[in-house]
Specification:
The complex is a heterodimer of chains A (about 170) and B (about 650).
Chain A (H helix, E strand, L loop, with lengths): L8 E6 L3 H10 L8 E6 L7 H9 L4 E6 L9 H19 L6 E5 L5 H18 L4 H17 L7 H4 L5
Chain B lengths: L10 H8 L8 H18 L4 H4 L2 E6 L11 H8 L5 E7 L5 H13 L4 E6 L2 H14 L7 E5 L1 H5 L6 H20 L7 E4 L3 E5 L3 H12 L3 E5 L14 E2 L4 E2 H14 L3 E4 L2 E9 L2 E8 L9 E5 L1 E4 L3 E3 L15 E3 H9 L9 E2 L2 E2 L2 E8 L24 H15 L4 E6 L10 H9 L3 E4 L7 E4 L5 H4 L2 E7 L5 E7 L1 E6 L1 E3 L3 H7 L26 E3 L9 H18 L4 E4 L4 E3 L9 H4 L7 E8 L2 E8 L19 E3 L4 H12 L16
Parallel strand pairs in B: 1-2, 1-3, 3-4, 6-7, 6-14, 7-10, 14-27, 16-25, 19-20, 19-25, 20-21
Antiparallel strand pairs in B: 5-28, 8-9, 11-12, 12-13, 15-26, 17-18, 22-23, 23-24, 29-32, 30-31
The chains are: A alpha/beta (about 170), B alpha/beta (about 650).
Chain lengths: ~170, ~650
């Protein structure tokens, strides 16, 4: 007698495309499960890897990155985002968190069907995977933070930097 | 109460929205209130962090649009328990004058220093509520908007418990975000008091003339060799029966005479970048020409008056291009214009026309399974709105000019909706035009007449199942068939791509809101004039162009444009000058390393140029010290929002009785 698993799905929706796309779904009175939470972002490129892993450690089961794709209003942002998510996905896979818990997709302002499809696919995938392992996610997040911090150079003496502006 | 329009928006809701805006109030009281709020804010800054937050949460019923699904009272009860929330109120229309007034008053009376409104999409009313908050004397960026209509009540109609839970969590997320919010100031940039009007048809000319009349300089760019656009191809226009040429000449005179307007014909806009007040545009001659030059200039607003493209039937559609006597409406109008004033007969080729038929809805109101899709795979499902009256006008003209010609009209519906337009139907009927009505699913069939009978019976025969005679099938031979062709979107794909302009399902440019912001595009500073937006007649086109001009002129009332301060910001306490962020920035000059004195030492640190930073956040993710962040969209704010969504809420049972999935 177990209660049905209701996954928490986070949608990071770009302000210019996917967020109005999600609005269009509501305006068309199309329905999707209420456990889908949409956050508006200028571009998901701003998130470091540990942000996503932190979400999982807090109990978010799946993250849909609903971006603008080739319609991205910012130069190079989508390409950078795609590369970052690529790295994250493989680390999630290697770390045993399940690469299906994250998905990068492009949703336009009128992409009602695409939005519904992506949300449904994520829901199905999460039903297969079950609840996220929050401890594992927290560990992966800590590793990710360490990895980012290790990119810091040792503090350099001030006089070495006084050379001039770039 | 429950009466809804085609968009599913309750009428009441629209009325309330139309009343939105700055509530009338006593100026002195406002100043006093603002001063008191400022004093209070100053005093509050000396208090410890946790104590000073007093957040007001306002939950909108939207006249039932939200509260029919979301249990708003329960939402209010629950969010009151979230740390930092001082008050939570439910209002039928928070966007109405009294709703906004409540917020402004509460800021003063309940000492609020942060505000959340949970209502419709932020694209409709985020600015409205920022304004209400500012009028209460609070920094407008200490406001958070929660979307519980488009993204909750409308999207989870059959899951009220789930929608209610989601509303609570999304408000908890906004409250969390506000815990990490800082007051921000808008970025002020110069506003270039000059408009670019793209398209020199009547819409473009009207917009240019109206703008220039308000003292604004205008660059009017037309791709063809002359001004006037599609109207150059028309004769007399309904309902005035004035000649189109005269209309064009009148407007052109105004435009050419006005020193504020620079006209460039045979030119096209080839590049657009920038934003409201500061668009960089490039205009090039259509044909490379030694005399004409490439112009790079800056404008503050852009009016899209790019017009439409007449529908051209496929080869073979109603025998178009197979039978020369099957012509489109623009072709027929050209024929009529070529008739000599003293002509007693209408001839086409060498043939005298004795019977003529008009067919409505060609290329418009297409149905799946009946009509062939366009090359892009889409059907033109919309009504082109002008063809019915044009057909009746032309039918009547034929009857009046050549009474010996028999005129037949094959229609699906008669949509002569404008003032004076219905008279064309009445007059056409009286003049002896014979009407046949067909079902959309069964459009008339057009066939070539056998060679021997063409002279007697007409070159083509039309077979129609006439619903006016209860479905009787009739066949009729005619000498000419005029296809009432509609409008299709103009060829502006390049501009749409470059300027990121939204288009509707029909391919025409799409306004922000059909009723509340009918001539504005979601790209700030870009306005709509005329048929670039969808089929319109001349009156509607001129009205839209006038409205676009006024909107653009209003933008120029200020010397500066104020932009949301959502740009990157460097925390100098954390920055170590490692420049990793700089490598991620694709915008020249937006993020650079500069020498500066920090703690008595000369060091290099990252610096953001707020005028050049676009706020994408690519720099944020790579800093090992989290020293760079995006104002208004900080990483710690997102983390707090995820906490709000994921964590348990005090006093709130998030067990299966509230959360549900289906």
């Amino acid at each position: 007698m177990s209660e049905p698993f209701i996954p928490k799905i986070l949608v990071l929706a770009t302000e210019k495309c996917a967020y109005p796309g999600a609005d269009a779904v509501g305006k068309a009175h199309q329905e999707y499960p209420s456990n889908v939470y949409i956050l508006r972002v200028p571009s998901p490129v701003l998130f470091p890897e540990d942000f996503y892993l932190g979400c999982y450690s807090k109990g978010i089961d799946g993250i849909l990155i609903a971006a603008c794709g080739s319609d991205c209003p910012y130069h190079g942002a989508y390409e950078r985002l795609a590369a970052r998510i690529d790295g994250l996905t493989s680390r999630m896979n290697a770390g045993g968190l399940g690469m299906e818990r994250i998905r990068l997709t492009a949703i336009c302002t009128v992409c009602i069907k695409a939005f519904l499809k992506e949300v449904a696919l994520m829901g199905d995938a999460l039903q297969q995977l079950g609840p996220v392992d929050r401890q594992l996610a927290a560990r992966l997040r800590d590793e990710s933070v360490e990895r980012l911090q290790s990119t810091a150079r040792l503090a350099q003496p001030a006089e070495a930097l006084a050379g001039g502006a770039r | 109460m429950s009466e809804k329009n085609e968009n599913g928006l309750r009428r009441q809701d629209e009325e309330a929205q139309l009343e939105c805006g700055e509530p009338g109030r006593d100026e002195a009281a406002r100043v006093e209130r603002a001063m008191e709020a400022a004093r209070r804010q100053e005093a509050a800054e000396h208090q410890p962090e946790e104590e000073k937050l007093r957040i007001g949460v306002y939950i909108c019923r939207c006249g039932g649009n939200i509260s029919d699904v979301v249990d708003v009272e329960r939402v209010a009860e629950t969010v009151r328990l979230i740390p930092g929330v001082a008050t939570a109120k439910v209002h039928t229309f928070v966007c109405s004058d009294p709703g906004q007034q409540t917020i402004s008053n509460d800021i003063l009376e309940e000492n609020l220093d942060r505000v959340v409104v949970a209502s419709c999409s932020p694209f409709l009313h985020e600015q409205t509520f920022r304004g209400a908050v500012a009028r209460g004397g609070m920094n407008p960026y200490l406001y958070e908007h929660v979307n519980i209509r488009e993204q909750a009540s409308w999207a989870h109609k059959h899951d009220p418990a789930g929608a209610t839970d989601k509303a609570i969590r999304m408000i908890a997320a906004a409250v969390g975000k506000l815990h990490h919010a800082a007051p921000l100031e808008q970025i002020k940039l110069p506003n270039h008091r000059r408009a670019l009007v793209i398209g020199g048809g009547i819409a473009g000319m009207k917009a240019a003339a109206d703008l220039a009349g308000r003292g604004i300089r205008v660059l009017l760019v037309e791709v063809s060799e002359r001004l006037g656009g599609r109207l150059n191809e028309r004769g007399a226009v309904y309902p005035s029966e004035r000649s189109g040429d005269e209309l064009v000449a009148d407007l052109e005179r105004r435009v050419r005479r006005d020193p504020n307007i620079e006209v460039l014909v045979s030119s096209q806009v080839t590049a657009v970048s920038g934003f409201i007040g500061n668009f960089k545009v490039q205009v090039q001659p259509v044909r490379p020409d030694a005399k004409a030059r490439v112009i790079d200039t800056t404008v503050g607003a852009i009016v899209m008056a790019t017009g439409f493209r007449p529908y051209v039937p496929r080869n073979g559609e109603f025998l178009y291009k197979n039978e020369p006597c099957v012509v489109t409406m623009p072709e027929f109008i050209q024929l009529m214009r070529s008739v000599k004033p003293d002509a007693r007969t209408l001839t086409f080729g060498k043939r005298e026309i004795r019977k003529i038929a008009f067919l409505h809805c060609v290329g418009s109101r297409q149905l799946d399974g009946v009509h062939e899709p366009q090359p892009d795979g889409k059907l033109n499902t919309y009504c082109s709105r002008t063809c019915c009256t044009t057909i009746l006008q032309q039918a009547l003209t034929v009857r009046e000019r050549f009474p010996q010609i028999e005129v037949f009209d094959f229609y699906r519906d008669i949509r002569t909706y404008g003032r004076g337009e219905e008279a064309y139907y009445t007059e056409a009927s009286k003049s002896g035009v014979v009407f046949f009505r067909y079902n959309g699913e069964e459009p008339p069939r057009v066939e070539s007449a056998p060679a021997g009978r063409r002279a007697r019976d007409g070159a083509v025969s039309i077979t129609v199942k006439d619903t006016l005679t209860w479905g009787e099938e009739l066949t009729l031979g005619v000498d000419m068939l005029v296809l009432g062709t509609g409008m299709t979107p103009g060829p502006i794909e390049d501009l749409i791509g470059q300027m990121k302009l939204p288009t509707g399902e029909d391919g025409f440019l799409q306004e922000v809101h059909p009723k509340l912001r009918p001539v504005e595009l979601s790209v700030n500073g870009v306005l709509l004039a005329g048929t670039a937006q969808g089929p319109m007649n001349i009156q509607e086109t001129l009205a839209a162009a006038g409205a676009a001009a006024v909107k653009a002129a209003a933008m120029f009332a200020k010397d500066n444009v104020e932009l949301n301060p959502y740009v990157a910001a460097v925390d100098l306490d954390l920055c170590r000058g490692e420049a990793q962020c700089v490598t991620q920035c694709d915008y020249d000059g937006a993020l650079t390393m500069v020498p500066m004195e920090v703690g008595g030492e000369m060091v290099e640190r990252a610096q953001v140029n707020a005028g050049l930073c676009v706020g994408c956040g690519a720099c944020v993710a790579v800093c090992p010290h989290r020293a760079i962040d995006l104002n208004g969209w900080r990483l710690d704010q997102y983390e707090a929002m995820v906490d709000g969504i994921a964590a348990d809420i005090p006093g709130h049972e998030c067990a299966a009785d509230l959360v549900s999935i289906h």
